[in-house]
Amino acid sequence: MVRSPTKPVCEEDVPCSAPAAGVVLVFHRGGVRVATATTSKAGTYRVVLRPGTYVVRPVRKLPFGSLQPRTVRVLAGRFAVADFELDTGIR
User: Fold this and answer.
1) Which of 28, 34, 37, 91 is the most exposed place for a label (fewest CB within 10 A)?
2) Which of 69, 72, 76 is nearest to 50 (CA)?
3) What is the pTM of this model?
């Protein structure tokens, strides 16, 4: 998971995103909370989910921006990779 942009003006060849550490993600299926995961300092997380489609939200309302994407689909017998971007709203 990354947060982006990290500054008002992005420059060519200079990173304008950074890991989003310590964000607690909540996974819902059918309106029921089924799992949570907290991002590491590197912005990574891992969660075990049954096959299906999940709505993902941060546990707390973000003071800025939004989380994208908002849903994740897990297929049977496969690992799913879901890279989230936390839009900081900086413009």
Assistant:
1) 91
2) 76
3) 0.83
- The span from the CA of 54 to the CA of 32, in Å, is 10
CATH number of 2-87: 2.60.40.1120
Do the bridges between strand 52-58 and strand 24-29 make them parallel or antiparallel, or are there none, so unpaired? Answer: antiparallel
Q: What is the pLDDT of residues 2-19, one digit of tens each?
A: 988 999 998 999 999 999
Q: Could you tell me the maximum CA-CA distance found in the chain, to the nearest angstrom? A: 43
Classify the C-alpha dihedral 32-63-22-10 as positive or negative: positive
Q: Using CA atoms, how far apart are residues 40 and 21, in angstroms rounded to an integer?
A: 5
Report yes or no: 1 and 20 within 8 Å, Cβ to Cβ.
yes
